[in-house]
């Protein structure tokens, strides 16, 4: 279940070299190319699923989520806490169409409610003028 046109499948198969944070037979974790936080690691299943809505078997999901705390410990953010992000589909601006969990940490992050979630957000008044909407 590999998509030969998928960049994350190529990373999972070892065709694109990466520096794995963690790897086993089903998942690989590697640092994001454009980190948003001091720690920004992606965890992907080696099998291809476009996103979390792509009929992912529960055991696959369980294994994927079971990797989260391992990665957090390896990266030294387990104690202070971290944020998981899974962009899914167009409205979430998912850019790589292979299921991945962002693990973000290494510093205090604002609550999602306080962030600029775009002009469609219910808090858009804080960030956008009426002309932008
Ligand atoms: P998303 O918008 O949730 O699909 O996130 C895709 C993430 O993958 C972005 O944060 C990118 O910076 C990251 N990314 C894309 N290509 C690579 C790559 N080859 N190695 C590491 N991270 C990547």
The ordered string of helix (H) and strand (E) elements is HEEEHEE
Order of neighbouring strands in the sheet with most strands: 1-2-3-5-4
Strand runs, count: 5
CATH architecture: 2-Layer Sandwich
**What is the CATH level 1 assignment?**
Alpha Beta
Query: What value does the average pLDDT take?
Result: 94
Helix amount, in percent? Answer: 10-25%
> What separation lies between the terminal Cα atoms?
41 Å
Q: Domains counted in the coordinates: how many?
A: 1
Coarse structural class: alpha+beta
CATH 4th-level superfamily: HIT-like
> How would you sum up the major sheet?
5 strands, antiparallel
Shape: globular
Question: In terms of per-residue confidence, which ranges show pLDDT below 50 for 5 or more consecutive residues?
Answer: none
Rounded radius of gyration (Å): 16 Å
Number of alpha- plus pi-helical segments: 2
Question: Which band does the percent of strand residues land in?
Answer: 15-25%
Hetero compounds: adenosine monophosphate
CATH topology: HIT family, subunit A
Question: How is this structure best described in words?
Answer:
The protein is an alpha+beta fold and 133 residues long. The protein has a single domain (7-109), classed as HIT family, subunit A (2-Layer Sandwich), CATH 3.30.428. The chain contains two helices and five strands; from the N terminus they run αβββαββ. A hairpin with a 7-residue loop joins strand 2 and strand 3 (39-45). Adenosine monophosphate is lined by residues 7, 30, 32-34, 42, 87, 93-96.
């Amino acid at each position: 279940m590999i998509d030969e046109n998928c960049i994350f499948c190529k990373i999972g198969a070892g065709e694109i070299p990466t520096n794995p944070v963690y790897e086993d037979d089903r998942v690989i974790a590697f640092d994001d190319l454009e980190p948003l936080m001091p720690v920004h690691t992606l965890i992907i299943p080696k099998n291809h699923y476009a996103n979390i809505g792509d009929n992912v078997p529960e055991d696959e999901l369980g294994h994927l989520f079971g990797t989260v705390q391992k990665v957090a410990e390896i990266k030294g953010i387990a104690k202070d806490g971290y944020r998981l992000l899974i962009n899914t589909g167009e409205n979430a601006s998912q850019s790589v169409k292979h299921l991945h969990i962002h693990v973000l940490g290494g510093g205090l992050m604002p609550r999602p409610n306080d962030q600029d979630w775009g002009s469609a957000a219910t808090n858009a008044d804080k960030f956008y003028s009426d002309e932008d909407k």
